[in-house]
Amino acid sequence: MLDHDSRLPEAGTTPGSVVALVDATSRVERELVGNWLSEGGIAQEFGTSAPVTQLDLDPEAVADRLVGRVDDPLVVPVRVLWLPPERDGVRRTTFTDLATLSNPRKPNKFLQRRLVRKAPDRHLVLTGQPARLSELRANNPGTVAAPEAFARAIVRAGIVALERAERAVIGDRYKVPRLVAEEILDSREFLRRLDTIAEATGVPVRDVHRRAEKALRELVAAQSRLVSDLFTQAMRPIHASTWKVDSEENGLDRLRTLNRRYPLVFLPSHRSYVDAFVLGDILARNDFPPNHVVGGANLSFWPLGPIARRTGTVFIRRSFGDDEVYKAVVEEYFAYLLAKRFNLEWYFEGGRTRTGKLRPPRYGLLNYLAAALRSKRIDDVMLVPVSITYERLNEIGAIADEQTGGSKKPEGLTWLAQYVRNQQHSAGHVYVRFGTPLSARERLAAHGDPLQAHGITAEDELLELEHRAVQRLAFEVAVGINEVTPVTVNALTTLVLLGVHERALTRDELRTAIAPVLGYLEGRNLPRGELATLRDDHGLAVVLEQLAVAKVVTVYRGGLEPVYSINAGAHLEAAFYRNSAVHWFVNRAILELAVLTAVEAPEGDQLRAGWEAAYRLRDLLKFEFFFPERTEFTSQLTTEMLLVDQQWHRRTAAGTVGADVLAQLAGSGFMMAHRVLRSFFDAQLVVAERLAARDPAQALDKKVFIDECLQVGKQMLLQQRLHSPESVSSELFGSALKLADNHGLLSGDDPFDLTARRIRFAAELRDISARISRAAVLDPSNRLDAL
After folding, report:
1. Is 430 in contact with 456 (CB distance < 8 Å)?
2. Which of 748, 677, 741, 736 is nearest to 712 (CA)?
3. How many CA within 13 A on the CB side of residue 189?
4. CA distances for 644 relative to 257, 521, 528, 731, angstroms
5. To the nearest whole percent, how much of the chain has pLDDT over 90?
6. 490 - beta bridge partners?
7. What is the largest CA-CA distance in the chain?
8. Which of 160, 180, 220, 581 could cross-link to 491 by cystine, CB 3.0-4.6 Å?
């Protein structure tokens, strides 16, 4: 009932008496505990011969017979632990047990009697960490004056102690919280916060308290060991037949060590509905306690919602608006879970990626975590960036359809049935990689968050510091995910095929185009999937055939040999695979365009022009990719250039970038600008041209405007003013609109100036598009003689 691990009581003298708080649900359990006590169980376990009083672990009984005692007994929680039968060396509930209408962890009273006779190994009497009554009073100073509240605190402490003792037997993967809502609703600090909200809003205190309790009951995940076992067994075969899971054991060992001291918050990339199942299965297999997974309320439909809630899913409203009560409940619940060292998991992009790369992060839940640190509710939390990358994904067809104006199908029973059917096809590997854990306290402090209010700091300045620190922390998490995301066979194959603009390639041509990029990846020692497969003709053929089955690649077999190209209408799907690894090539692509700009500048001004172009491209792409601060970006780009030309520093000592540097780029065997950046800049061009053609005095409805961009983008594609269908994407148009807003192009006081700036912006993007086209011409894979 204390937080230390020792089984011995902390009191300095031998207790004069012992109170056994018995958590029993049947006569059989009471008999088992009674026999154990009469046979000297307490004496054997704790080395004391003091007389023992047996008392129910019930608030009313505790309030009547324990709270008011003037002596200082040793309080020991006791219960009977029932175990499933051992199957293949593991004790776990199965659907066989469910078929017999029994839960082997909670057998009914008739089955209990039978198990005592026939299978005595299926139960044991368990004791939790004991405490002296004086220690319980010291640990709960706010409740001692209220006997009923103190009794409830003792009962909660006893249950927690028994839960910890159970986990020592059955494993940490069965760590589940109990009596959460009751404990939060007994918190004086939380109740005071609700009173403050009531006073500020003018709502009666009783109504505010009722709303808080309702929200809390809606929010709290009521985890069940039975449902967790059965749900895992139900979902594992579905996904095991689809993917071969590839995870790193070293990363898990490191996290397990950290988890002994800190709660972990897993922050995975979000590409599929299956992400939580894949990660949860890996953690369960490695005996991690189950995460509390924060999910959107759109997935709380029957039967998935009730099941998921009992496996640890916390369904949270998509938007709180100005509901201060709900905000307070969410913040309190998160702080409670972290303070009790329960692990959390949420998808900080706010939803599945629609393009294949990371989306900009949402800060709401990280703000709650930072608030818990500032209030000193928790000492620290370790944030774990997690990359989950699929070689193939069955749901990207629907994702691509949404990007071209299709409506998102609502989740429900029909959607769930279709989802299960889609998982019946093999989809290669899924790679799960754990990035370097980040200390939330350390990183927030490093980014300027004071983590406590200083009287000398103005409130608005303090809020700005806190907000900026959380943003930078989210940025670090995103970079941590990208740093461990591997390049998969499909990512590299689609990267090359998307770059040859509608041409079909033979396997030899494709392998020739892949080889220098593969060499580049190996030279940088970047994380990779099974890329060696692509060097082998048979292996490459298998990859291409699987992409053909997925209708991403089309194969023509009527000529001398098969030729392969991106399937008509599948460019967004192909881009999704490519974009999972596109961040590894962005600096190279920017470098190419900067060099092209430099060689066009007057001699002596070339180096400056090149760097200015690089910085400008970084600024234009800041809503698509995660760039470091300018100094580090400069260092990264210099390193990239040295990979191409080891004599770079010598050549540029005079500030001149000669044509030989451009030749070095082309001679490396590949160009990246047209493969990596064209779709993003084409989408920006559509947005810029529509803004330039727009009446500056007209109010802009963003949803209507993006729909207009989709329609006009399709026209520009037919006119070949855009180079690929992957540019016509609501997600890309949305990011481009944020960029335009950031540059002050959505509104302005001077309509003539606003129109002029919009026109200049569109002209700049047309210039960049022209440079990207020149880079494409230099790419050997776009020249037949090179292949």
Report:
1. no
2. 736
3. 12
4. 41, 13, 21, 33
5. 42
6. none
7. 97
8. 581
Higher pLDDT, 144 or 274: 274
Q: Which amino acid is at 688?
A: A
Strands 344-345 and 264-268: parallel
Residue 584, pLDDT score = 97
Sign of the Cα torsion 326, 329, 333, 334 reads positive
Average pLDDT, stretch 130-151? 83
Mean pLDDT of 334-354: 88
Average pLDDT, stretch 16-43?
89
- Of 512 and 49, the structure prediction assigns the larger pLDDT to 512
CA 452 to chain centre: 27
Q: Which residues contact 571 (CB under 8 A, 6 or more apart)?
A: 498, 724, 725, 726
C-alpha angle 488-274-176 in degrees, rounded to nearest 5: 125
State the SS3 of 397-455: HHHHHHHCCCCCCCCCHHHHHHHHHHCCCCCCEEEEEECCCEEHHHHHHHCCCCCCCCC
Element (H, E) at 23: strand 18-23
What average pLDDT score do residues 170-188 get?
67
- The counts of H helices and E strands in the chain are 34, 17
Average pLDDT estimate for 578-600:
94
Residue with tokens 């037919």: 718
Q: Would you report the helix, strand and coil content of the chain in percent, each value rounded to 5?
A: 55, 10, 35
pLDDT of residue 250: 77
Distance CA 509, CA 523 (A): 22
CA distance 283 to 482: 21
Q: Are 336 and 183 in contact (CB under 8 A)?
A: yes
How far apart CA 267 and CA 547 sit, in angstroms, is 29
| CB-CB contact of 192 with 171 (8 Å) | no
**Best CA proximity match to 195, nearest among 184, 204, 185:** 204
H or E element, residue 70: none
Apex 671 CA angle, 484 and 495, nearest 5 = 50
Instruction: Report pLDDT for 667.
Output: 85
Q: Which residues contact 231 (CB under 8 A, 6 or more apart)?
A: 307, 308, 310, 311
Element (H, E) at 264: strand 264-268
3-state secondary structure 233-259: HHHHHHHHCCCEEEECHHHHHHHHHHH
What pLDDT digit, counting tens, does each position of 605-651 carry? 888 899 999 999 999 999 999 999 999 999 999 999 999 888 787 77
Could you tell me the two tokens for 784? 């037949």
Q: Give the 3-state DSSP-derived string for 538-604, with helices as H, strands as E and coil as C.
A: HHHHHHHHHHHHCCCEEEECCCCCCEEEECCCCHHHHHHHHHCCHHHHHHHHHHHHHHHHHHHCCCC
The CA-based angle 736-739-740, given to 5 degrees, is: 90
Please give the single-letter amino acid code of residue 239: H
Bridge partners, 18 (sequence order): 52, 74
What's the mean pLDDT in 355-381? 89
Contacts of 589 (CB under 8 A, 6+ apart): 672, 673, 675, 676, 677
The amino acid occupying position 290 is P
CA atoms of 768 and 782, how far apart (whole Å): 19
CB 675 within 8 A of CB 582: no
Contact of 52 with 69, CB cutoff 8 Å: no
Give the pLDDT score at 94: 53
Least confident of 141-150, 711-720, 770-779: 141-150
CA distance 316 to 336: 16
Q: What is the mean pLDDT of residues 328-340?
A: 88
Report pLDDT for 169.
Answer: 76
505 beta partners: 564
